[in-house]
Amino acid sequence: MLESFELEADAALPTTAHAELQDMVPSSVSVKRRQSILFVTSEIADYIKAGGLGEVSAALPRALRRQYDVRILIPGYRQVLSQIGPVEEIARLPASFGIPACGLGRGTTQDGLTVYVLLCPELYDRDGSPYVDGFGMDWSDNDIRFARLGLAAADIACGSGDPLWRADLMHLNDWPSGLASAYLAWRGQHIPTILTIHNLAYQGNFDRSRMSHLGIPDAAFQINGVEFYGKLSFLKAGIYYSSHITTVSSTYAQEITRPEFGCGLDGLLRTCAEQGRLDGIINGIDESWDPSRDPYLVSPFSAENWRGKRINADNVRENFGLALSNGPLFAVVSRLVHQKGVDLAISAAETIVSQGGQIAVIGQGEPRFESELQALASRHPGSVGVKIGYDEGDARRMYAGSDFLLMPSRFEPCGLSQMYAQRFGSLPIAHRTGGLADTIEDGINGFLFGEPSLGRFMDAIRRGLETFRSGSRLTAMRRAAMSRPHGWDRSASRYQEVYERACRTALA
């Protein structure tokens, strides 16, 4: 007689195939289907990224797929379709209100992760980033472009996208996917939804007159809905209608419930926290950030052999037009915007150079900061080098070659750069906020300062310079930084707890 046991079904099997498998085995055998997660994002580093969301969207689903059948939904930008390979159109999603019809394509990443792609050239076949044109201006139809994403997510979750698959839970990310949970609620569907806030400052706010074009019912335009200071807010909709809210560090989860960091949403977020619906889960970094085998580096190195770090430093100096030097090398790898404290880094540069230090900067952003940095490099040839733009290889070699990374961010939900730097033995000098406070131990694996002022920042830089002059302390701090846990396993476990809690709540 056959004993009862659980059979773990293959995650690649569609929902209907799981049912067929269940019919094929004796009743004493139970088939356990892994839960299906639809991960909805506006960027993924495999194909297109504008910031940390792209990195997280590439890494977190991969960390979760050991436990779940995770599939990604992303708009079919020109950059995505040119890189993803064969895409099979599996459904047509109808036009609704002012949102055009689109195709739903299905493709896979190189390592087999299923990606659903919205096929709508009129919305997504453009140059520029996911959000702005080549001049840095928001696309005028961003409300339609990302309402299309949210509506498609709701359709797929309800089973009207892929005929062989539907979601048990949706994981939304930032304002571009925020309407997905609202569309479900307005349909009376109770599928659990998690919204992760990667940066509260970006909210997707649009004029109230756009509601009818987006299919938003008039009754939803209120404080308990989509209304935000007279506008409609995609992010507020996501927060209000989702089952659970996460953000990308525990400190930031606390900060955004206060007026100074809450960007006008602190009251709603305080309510979420009081209801047990808000969690902070620190991001990780993927395994490619390994100085012993990173193909971008000109020479590998480890905490036991620093020779390769010096070789990378010399390469950075040559690449950025800096003089050969035995002094400290500071790196700035950042969007050049006010949030990142670029003005503080520019003001600190004179002292760094006067103390024998050098600075290499890569990034792009606000024109005023780009101009000021280029002027700084002109005033200090051989000591300051600036590249406007972004190149992955340059950035990785900067982390590998630098002694310190400057991160005077006024706020930082999580931050990945400090973890990249730590992994490559570069000590971050950062404001004690958000994820920086959660990942940097002051004087152990980096330096923290308490308020975003030039004086406090300079105090931390001076401590860094003192450490550089003390070879043994510098080595100890580098080793501590490199040994800090950086991977996604711990974060993925926390997300699993949140998913299970959201599913239990939905069933209650």
From TrEMBL:
Catalytically driven reaction(s): [(1->4)-alpha-D-glucosyl](n) + ADP-alpha-D-glucose = [(1->4)-alpha-D-glucosyl](n+1) + ADP + H(+)
Binding site for ADP-alpha-D-glucose: 49
Name the record gives this protein: Glycogen synthase
InterPro entries: Glyco_trans_1 (IPR001296), GS/SS (IPR011835), Starch_synth_cat_dom (IPR013534)
Keywords linked to the UniProt accession: Glycogen biosynthesis, Glycosyltransferase, Transferase
Pathway: Glycan biosynthesis; glycogen biosynthesis
EC category name: transferase
Residues in the signal sequence: none
GO molecular function: alpha-1,4-glucan glucosyltransferase (ADP-glucose donor) activity; alpha-1,4-glucan glucosyltransferase (UDP-glucose donor) activity
EC number: 2.4.1.21
Role this protein plays: Synthesizes alpha-1,4-glucan chains using ADP-glucose.
Every Glycosyl transferase family domain range: 326-466
Gene Ontology process terms (BP): glycogen biosynthetic process
Organism: Microvirga lotononidis
Domain of life, per lineage: Bacteria
